[in-house]
Amino acid sequence: MKLFLGADHGGFYLKEKVEAYLTKRGYTWEDVGDKELDPQDDFPQFAQMAATKVLGEVEEDDPRAILICTGGQGMAMAANRFRGIRAAVIWDTFEAHECRNDNDSNVLCLPARVLDAPGDDLELWKEVIDEWLTTPFAGAARYKRRNAELDVF
């Protein structure tokens, strides 16, 4: 599995932590930006880069992306504009499990404001990422049908 990581200024510092964590865990990842902290950058460009990489990665099995911004919603809205992308904003392990098991989520959007708050030493984001990365898609017929319906529009 190859992962594509993207963040705007609101998620930049958490993205750096995620990169180090994924490296330590042996995952292959590519940073699609922003490469340096820029308070004026815009999240849609990073969501677009990650989504197109996920959709265009034919040599990798199960390519996915992790996108981070202040609230996660902007990244999810931008990424979900691409047919074949199933981006979900996740803030706990239950949601991480469900969005993989039922919806075959291929883009994880993390809200830095919630998961990387100053003074918060819980590092819940690690548990969320682990659950999302290790939960397989259940593949039930109803789940496949529902996912196909997302790409009709």
TrEMBL record:
Keyword annotations from UniProtKB, A to Z: Isomerase
Top-level taxon of the source organism: Bacteria
Family, as annotated: Belongs to the LacAB/RpiB family.
Protein name: Ribose 5-phosphate isomerase B
UniProt-listed NCBIfam families: PRK05571.1, rpiB_lacA_lacB
Naturally occurring in which organism (per UniProt): Candidatus Saccharimonas aalborgensis
Keyword Zinc carried by entry: no
InterPro entries, A to Z: RpiB_LacA_LacB, RpiB_LacA_LacB_sf
Gene Ontology MF terms: ribose-5-phosphate isomerase activity
Pfam families registered for this protein in UniProt: LacAB_rpiB
